[in-house]
Amino acid sequence: MPTTTAKYDLLDWSQVARLVCWLTVASIALLAAASLSAQVQSKVPQEEEGTGIEPQEGKMISPNWSFTDEQNRFVRMKDYFDGKRPIILSFNYSDCPKLCSVQLEKMALALRDVQLLADKDFQVISVCIDPTETPKRAREAKEKFTTYYNKPEYNGGWHFLTGSEGQVRGLAQQCGVTYKYIPEQRLYSHPPVFLLVSPAGKIVRYIYGLEYEPKTIRQALIEAAEGKIGPSINRLEYLIGCYMYNDSTGQYTFQAMALMRIGGLLTIFGLMVGLVPYWFWRRGHSQKIPVEQTQTQLSS
After folding, report:
1. What is the rounded CA–CA span in Å between residue 300 and residue 289?
2. How far, CA to CA in Å, does 100 sit from each of 4, 51, 105, 126, 184?
3. Closest CA to 91 of 77, 106, 103
4. CATH of 47-239, one of 3.30.1330.50, 3.40.50.1980, 3.40.30.10, 3.30.70.920
5. What is the pLDDT of residues 207-262, one digit of tens each?
6. Which helix (H) or strand (E) covers residue 295, if one does?
7. What is the largest CA-CA distance in the chain?
8. Rounded to an integer, what distance in angstroms lies between the CA atom of residue 176 and that of residue 54?
9. DSSP run (H or E) holding 167
10. What residues does CATH 3.40.30.10 cover in the chain?
11. How many helices (H) and strands (E) does the chain have?
């Protein structure tokens, strides 16, 4: 009796597609559940409640907010809206336990390599959120962070401003930045963010987090100089809460758990997508059995 071979589709791609779709939905659901669980387990500390960022791209900053600069001179925001140079704006304070120092230091290091020059091509303004800070303290902060920039002939483009509670909060709120004072810790809780402001005073972009790529910053400055509104930088890092306030230490720390959870889930998903087609192939290959052999096995 001639041997015939049963015809089987070794790989039913429609089934694979359906299964991959199902796995995609399942993985998204799993990721959402893990994210929700992480939020429940890692409840936002009380110190961070009531702080954050509400982007205000396209809005104009009032030119009349008044401050005192590091040289103890009375200034208004309109003094920096010269129609030529974009502004990198942040809200910090000198006695911040960690976050402000890291934020300003890393930005200074990034700006050192952007192939644009402070004072000539752009300006940097740090507004102190602590109303008790003095111009002398602001001057010390400028000396510290311009050291990282390492271009003393262009230090005139860096400005560290102090002011009253009303003026500082008014400017911060107009920029969509909220912060608060924590009496028990005697410090401020605030988000790590820089704003890019056009030469005319328009908010055009937000730079989140504590990592800044010189090439990205350079391009963002060029676009800000033209008044172009651009997408936020490093927003995902900020949204997943990489930098959180630790109330036990009174410091801001990097939180790697959120990234690890996401990375683990994506790894599982990748393995499933890669192995499922192979599993189908093996299943179909194992079914390719001669009919005669199957009948012999049955008769025996």
Report:
1. 17
2. 77, 15, 8, 10, 19
3. 103
4. 3.40.30.10
5. 998 889 999 999 999 999 999 998 888 766 555 444 444 444 444 444 444 444 55
6. helix 291-299
7. 106
8. 5
9. helix 165-174
10. 47-239
11. 8, 13
Task: Enter the pTM of the model.
Answer: 0.68
Q: Which residues of 57-84 are buried (b: 16+ CB within 10 A; e: fewer)?
A: beeebeeebebbbbeeeebebeebbeee
Distance CA 75, CA 61 (A): 15
Tokens of 116: 């644009």
294 φ/ψ angles, rounded to the nearest 5 degrees: -70, -40
Q: What's the rounded Cα separation, in Å, for the pair 102 and 146?
A: 13
Q: Token digits for 71?
A: 């040289």
